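User: Can you help me understand a structure? I only have the sequence.
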Amino acid sequence: MPLDPRPAVLREARPQDAGPLTEIFLASRAAAMPYLARVHSDEATLAWMTHVVLPGTEVRVAETAGDGGPGRIAGFVSLDGEELEHLYLAPPLRRLGIGSLLLEAAKAARPDGLSLYTFQRNSGARAFYERHGFTAVAFDDGSRNEEREPDVRYRWSPAG
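Assistant: Let's start by predicting it. Here is the structure, written out as tokens:
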């Protein structure tokens, strides 16, 4: 069933979304960051999504409709306090405005500001966040993350 990425509809994530969200997480990371070390199996990633991410953070999904059928998950955003923990899209649906829609929803949910980490080599993500008003505030050597990949801390505040 072909997907029509316009319009995407946002909704709260449900426990049964764990499988599709895990697939998007893994596919997005593989497509955008092929250099990134895989430190967990697919099964462990599904367990983490099921038992940590979904119950422990605020997760919203973007759904797209296909040929009048039920919506399919195109991406998701996860917030933990003022921390934007995850924003991932199905790779074929990048650059269609869905990531911007998810990010705007995160900003609306946290009008006082957001922080996030992304990998320094992830130039696509860095450009995306900078286009949306995030500013790099710190650079790390990778010792704080499992992948041991240097990262950058970004901050967004409505005042700029």
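Now, to help you interpret it: The first helix runs from residue 18 to 32. The chain has four helices and seven strands. Let me know which part you'd like to focus on.
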